[in-house]
């Protein structure tokens, strides 16, 4: 079961039915989609995805997925799930644009790393970051991610596959 997590400023809470509009608004945002490396999709498709989280992902315990909250305000989305790019788990984080540049991305990733180590027993975790996403790449460098390889899509778009230990080796 996906646990509720807390960091200094954030609560990672499994989605509830009443969170659907927040989820849809985040994934309909053009900038969010751009930096997540995905195309904007119709609202109906996002609503179907949200219902799949509630109806399939949580009941079958497929992976951990949360809405991110700061002082009862929805600020973003996070996941830890198996990745098809390597034999491991990927950290996924997306913040709503009004919350960018406040250090929340770093806080989210640290929270996900703690969960990956303490609750899932993972020794390392991966991230996929668009080659043109300078802010996220800088954050990854600050946190200690190491570049593994570039993944090139059929359309030529490059994504950086990054890896990080879940715990500090010291």
Secondary structure layout:
Elements: E1 5-6, E2 11-13, H1 20-28, H2 30-36, H3 43-57, E3 64-70, E4 73-83, E5 88-95, H4 104-118, E6 124-130, H5 134-143, E7 146-152, E8 158-165
Antiparallel strand pairs: 1-2, 2-3, 3-4, 4-5, 6-8, 7-8
Structure overview:
By secondary structure, this protein is of the alpha+beta class. Helices cover 33% and strands 31% of the residues. It contains five helices and eight strands. It has helices spanning 20-28, 30-36, 43-57, 104-118, 134-143; strands at residues 5-6, 11-13, 64-70, 73-83, 88-95, 124-130, 146-152, 158-165. It is globular, with a radius of gyration of 15 Å. Residues 10-167 form the N-acetyltransferase domain.
Quick structural gist:
Residues 10-167 form the N-acetyltransferase domain. This protein has helices at 20-28, 30-36, 43-57, 104-118, 134-143; strands at 5-6, 11-13, 64-70, 73-83, 88-95, 124-130, 146-152, 158-165.
Count of individual beta strands: 8
Q: Biggest sheet, in brief?
A: 5 strands, antiparallel
Q: What fraction of the residues are assigned to beta strands by DSSP?
A: 25-35%
Q: What are the low-pLDDT stretches, counting only 5+ consecutive residues below 50?
A: none
Rg estimate, integer Å: 15 Å
Q: Mean pLDDT, as a whole number?
A: 93
Strand order of the largest sheet: 1-2-3-4-5
Order of helices and strands: EEHHHEEEHEHEE
Structural class assignment: alpha+beta
**Helicity range:** 25-40%
How far is the N terminus from the C terminus? 31 Å
The shape is: globular
Organism: Streptomyces galbus
Protein name: GNAT family N-acetyltransferase
């Amino acid at each position: 079961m996906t646990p509720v997590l807390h960091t200094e400023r954030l609560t990672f809470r499994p989605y509830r039915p009443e969170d659907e509009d927040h989820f849809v608004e985040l994934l309909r945002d053009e900038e969010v989609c751009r930096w997540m490396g995905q195309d904007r999709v119709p609202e109906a498709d996002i609503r179907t995805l949200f219902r799949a989280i509630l109806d399939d992902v949580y009941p079958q315990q497929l992976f951990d997925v949360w809405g991110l909250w700061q002082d009862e305000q929805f600020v973003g989305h996070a996941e830890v799930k198996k990745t098809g790019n390597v034999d491991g788990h990927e950290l996924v984080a997306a913040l709503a644009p009004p919350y960018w540049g406040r250090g929340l991305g770093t806080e989210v990733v640290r929270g996900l790393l703690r969960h990956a180590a303490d609750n899932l027993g993972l020794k390392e975790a991966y991230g996929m970051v668009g080659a043109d996403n300078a802010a996220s790449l800088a954050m990854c460098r600050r946190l200690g991610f190491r570049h593994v390889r570039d993944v090139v899509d059929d359309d030529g778009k490059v994504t950086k596959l990054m890896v990080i230990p879940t715990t500090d080796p010291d």
